[in-house]
Amino acid sequence: MKPVLDHIGILVPALEPALTFYGETLGLGAAVIRDIPELQLRLAFFDNPDGTIVELVEASGKSELQPGDVVVALEVEDLDAAIAEYRARGLKVYDQPATENLPLRRGWITKGAAHGTVIELCPKGAVAAFVRGTL
User: Fold this and answer.
1) What pLDDT does 1 receive?
2) Which of 91, 82, 94 is nearest to 124 (CA)?
């Protein structure tokens, strides 16, 4: 399976004003909020069962990402195989374990390796299940 677009993550300086803009002004509706204190993140997901999920990310810890950066999240059938394949192609891919409040393992290709955009590798269906509380 080729990777397909899973969701888009947008780094924002503060979640609340961004919620108003994306939810009300752009009409994406109510967001599902998830606090991930162990990663110093606050996340807001605008779920779209018929399309792409839009995620807002407020990061309070150290990160290479800055407000305005976009994370392109690709859904993969087999995360281990995808990480191995991209590493074999010479990319630096991080394997991020699940945490208490973000119980899904993911892979990351950094901005430097991905021409200025972070690529997140997500197991098929995992992000939607997390957002919908069925993970």
Assistant:
1) 66
2) 82
